Amino acid sequence: MNTILIYPQLEFIGTQIPTPPYSILFIADYLIKRNVNVKIFDLRFDSLHQVKNAISDIEPEYIGISVMTGPQIYYALKICESIKKEFKKIKIVWGGIHSTILPTQTLQNKLIDFVIRGEGEKSYHELVSGKNKSQINGLSLKNGAKIFHNPDRALLKSSELNELSIPWDLINPRRYLKSGNFNMITSRGCPFKCAFCYNALFNNVWRGWTAEKCIEEFNKIFKFGVKKITFYDDYFFANPNRIKILFQYFKEKDIIWKAELRVDQMNYSLAKEAKEHGCSNMYFGAESGSQRVLNILNKNISIKDIIKSAEITNKLDIIAEYSWMIGIPGETKKDIRKTISLIKNVREINPESEFSIKILFPYPQTLIYEQAIKSGFTPPSNLVSWSNIRREHAPDYLRHKNFLEMISITSAIIGKKVFESNNVPIFKLIKHPANFRWKNEVFSAGFENLFFKIFRKVIEKVISKRDSIEYDPFSRKIISIKKN
Ligand code: B12
Ligand code: SF4
């Protein structure tokens, strides 16, 4: 049995360190262990030509594509179109978060034959190994215009997750390594119920690699030259015993790391322990400066918690990165002003902290979705419209669209220290008007909005080509820019 798994391009990576395509790597590991021959292509690095050669070579019945909401859909559709044109018989399976939340709409697209909802390991294996399709949990399929959804598949148990490893020999891991930086994920799920988050409904149980399993996997990546790890777990600190062992290990190996922590779980002794064991940055989902809005978001945190996190990180010299949100159904301009004021307060308490302000886009099946619909939100009606979503674009149902977009754009410019790099002239040019706006809270109109769009195009051309920019998210410095 042969199959191919594809991770499509993402639109604009900028200074981000590319994350390995863990979604398909985990599935590949599950398949390999069951004697399926798997090839993986990450189209951020590989070409469609290579994919097609592999299809001609191994003639798989199915190919699987991993898709997140947003521009990745656009690239995924282009890939499917091109493959279907040349290989008429091949069956295309979409998996990942977008198709999980919208399986019917996804299957309405003629290029897509199957959707696997939720975690893909078992369902994809059953599909490629020829199990009766009506008995594959998590599978959505079509017959003409009729679409069927088999029952949901249960989440993998912790013990099953611990049997899975990352099959690094299927890809070139050094592509994801920049100045010793590497992104890693060691667990799945989160038990909290934030109203905007996918996890609240689909992935509500935390399951993680044990400390021993993590160490086994870390030992592999250290062979590639990894020195600094960014953990992308939604709830890295979930298990205190696991964390205790990992802390010791990080210290022994002299590893610098960062991870997300909920502000309500932040306390001085945990942060001090973390700092003493290599943690130099922490990121927090603070979301809003209005307690009323935090309640709408079901975030279960208080303004006090946010302030406390800034005080502790400042005291311990931990770089804090805050993520904020605006454009929430029920939010007023006054609430937004409160958010801006709290961000300023946090920056005064911890001047080294960073922040970004995103505009909420309500995803189907999240708790906030129904509220957004009541407020007049019309969700995109097909895959192509879903591909046009950008985090700095306000959805049409929101009032004060320009106001929201200007805040988000301004935050993208002044919230990150990277824009203080004087070796990038364009950064200097846009920083000053953004500073003026932020200081005076003038967001109603502005040329930076237009400028930013042009800037995005320029920066995409100049630095988004892979390997052209070397940025260290820990020191927050651009290390080098290669001229293309
Ligand atoms: C790392 C990450 C990124 C990376 C990209 C990932 C990469 N590999 O390079 C970056 C930083 C670029 C990113 C960007 C964005 N991200 Co992101 N990201 C993540 C994060 C933290 C980890 C992803 C991961 O590796 N997970 C681990 C794997 C194992 O899980 P998985 O991807 O869900 O895969 C499983 C199943 O979904 C399924 N599956 C997945 N693919 C396939 C394919 C097939 C064929 C099958 C059968 C099954 C299948 O099986 C897998 C194994 O069980 C997740 C949160 C999370 N913890 O998952 C958010 C998350 C995926 N991101 C999210 C969002 C909102 C975004 C942005 C839109 C944010 C923004 N506002 O800009 C952008 C979109 C970027 C774009 N241009 O399109 C949301 C997804 C929402 C959605 N509807 O898609 C998540 C869930 C965060 C959240 N809790 O809301 N992201
Ligand atoms: S936003 Fe964070 S804390 Fe809330 S449910 Fe999602 S992952 Fe968990």
Major sheet size, sense and barrel closure? 7 strands, mixed
Q: Which architecture of the largest domain would the CATH scheme give at its second level?
A: Alpha-Beta Barrel
Going by CATH, the homologous superfamily of the largest domain would be Aldolase class I
How many strands in all? 17
Mean pLDDT, to the nearest integer, reads 92
What structural class do you assign from the helix and strand content? alpha/beta
Number of discrete domains: 2
In the sheet with the most strands, the strands line up as 2-1-3-4-5-6-7
List low-confidence stretches.
Answer: none
Distance between the amino and carboxyl termini: 41 Å
CATH class of the largest domain, anyone?
Alpha Beta
* Tally of individual helices: 19
Enter the CATH topology name of the largest domain: TIM Barrel
Cα Rg? 22 Å
- Approximate strand percentage: 15-25%
Q: Estimate the helix proportion, in percent.
A: 40-55%
Q: What is the overall shape?
A: globular
* Small ligands present: cobalamin, iron/sulfur cluster
Describe the structure.
With 484 residues, the protein is α/β, with parallel strands linked by helices. The protein has two domains: 2-149, Cobalamin-binding domain (Rossmann fold), CATH 3.40.50.280; 178-481, Aldolase class I (TIM Barrel, Alpha-Beta Barrel). The protein has 19 helices and 17 strands. The chain has helices at residues 22-32, 48-58, 71-86, 97-101, 103-107, 121-128, 158-161, 199-202, 211-222, 240-253, 268-276, 291-296, 303-316, 333-349, 367-374, 383-386, 401-414, 425-440, 447-463; strands spanning 2-7, 37-42, 62-66, 91-95, 114-116, 139-143, 146-149, 181-184, 187-188, 207-208, 228-231, 256-260, 279-287, 319-326, 354-359, 469-472, 477-481. A seven-stranded mixed β-sheet has the order 2-1-3-4-5-6-7, sandwiched between helices. Strands 8-11-12-13-14-15 form a six-stranded parallel β-sheet. A two-stranded antiparallel sheet has the order 9-10. Strand 16 (469-472) and strand 17 form a beta hairpin. Helix 9 (211-222) runs parallel beside helix 10 (240-253), helix 13 runs parallel beside helix 14 and helix 18 (425-440) runs antiparallel to helix 19 (447-463). The longest helix is centred in the C-terminal third of the chain and has 17 residues, at 333-349. The model has no long low-confidence stretch (mean pLDDT 92). The protein binds cobalamin and iron/sulfur cluster. Cobalamin (B12) is lined by residues 10-11, 16, 18-19, 21-24, 26-27, 64-66, 68-72, 93, 95-98, 101, 116, 119-121, 124, 185, 197-199, 232, 234, 358, 363, 391.
